[in-house]
What we know:
Shape: globular
Number of helices: 7
Strand order of the largest sheet: 6-7-15-11-12
CATH architecture of the largest domain: 2-Layer Sandwich
Distance between the termini: 41 Å
Helix content: 25-40%
CATH topology of the largest domain: Uridine Diphospho-n-acetylenolpyruvylglucosamine Reductase, domain 3
Number of domains: 3
Largest sheet: 5 strands, antiparallel
Strand content: 25-35%
CATH class of the largest domain: Alpha Beta
Order of helices and strands: HEEHEEEEEHEHEEEEEEEEHEHEEEHE
Bound molecules: flavin-adenine dinucleotide
Radius of gyration: 21 Å
Number of strands: 21
Amino acid sequence: MNQRAHSSSSSETATPFDDLGVAVSRHEPLSHHTWLGLGGTAAYFCEPIDSDALGRVVKRCHEQQIPLRMIGGGSNVLVPVAGFEGMVVRLSAPGFCGIDVQRPAIIAGAGAKLVHVVSAAVQAGLSGLETLVDVPGTVGGALVGNAGGHGGDIGERVADVTVMLADGTTEVRDRSRLAFESRWSNLDDCIIIGCRLELDEEDASLLTKRMQKQWIVGRSAQPSGTRTVAMMFKDPLGTTAESLVAQAGARELRAGDAAVYAAHANYVVAGPHCSSDDVRTLVETVRSRVREKLGIELAPQIEVW
Ligand SMILES: Cc1cc2nc3c(=O)[nH]c(=O)nc-3n(C[C@H](O)[C@H](O)[C@H](O)COP(=O)(O)OP(=O)(O)OC[C@H]3O[C@@H](n4cnc5c(N)ncnc54)[C@H](O)[C@@H]3O)c2cc1C
């Protein structure tokens, strides 16, 4: 009886990763890792200590056809209530979060917070990233989506990116192999481990003032500080998603406890009883309204898993 109870509980906790020397949790609530604090569970979740451990997990997922997704700051992903039936990896260990100034470049780990990289650059008197100071998330997430705004994007400064492929091997991709467009890059086929950003020498105190100004302007233009809002759509060429949502009369739309944010129509605000499915429904409803009223297909910014 005891023996049977023991084997059933150990088979429940056993994972295909048990022999890899990596702590893997089961049924991890991804709400703990997303900006909005919403979303279901991941079948498997881990935060590998270094590239070797990451490689073992990646290779195992590849061999056993277990879907694998990376999560950074979770500021651009929406995990359904039903969760994700695969492995989610977060590069939060110190080895993935380094920021090393090598004038006039900065080497940054994929797990480093973008705001920390911007601050380190400014402190060192290196310019080129300060317009990114109000973008939430990590370097990895920023590279995948070429984070930025009207003042420029991260892709403009990327010299090379170190990536891991599905078989666990790593390679460095230099500028000639990288493509960055508005809120898009071709780094969607790999795991980003880190990058080298080429910057310009500039006076640190002038740069600090510019960064602070950008911070204030950014905060007034978008609600980056609050964890109850997320960006819905990419800006189409020559206009803003915010203006199109307003023109389509979609400002008042709601779904469950998700609503269009009153202060900025390209953001969704999640109420206290909101689920990630409410957010997804609202994004789809607003998108349909813009299509019907204006004949324009908005591309979602937030990525639904
Ligand atoms: C309030 C608010 C304001 C925002 N303002 C802006 C803005 O001004 N400009 C802008 O561009 N965006 C903005 N965003 C969107 C978001 O912050 C950016 O897209 C950000 O770069 C996402 O980074 P992240 O680390 O949170 O990525 P996540 O949301 O965790 O992930 C985004 C994507 O990157 C992938 N990914 C993450 N890390 C890795 C890795 N190491 N290797 C491979 N893939 C990886 C994920 O799998 C996912 O596909 C805003 C979002 C919010 C909530």
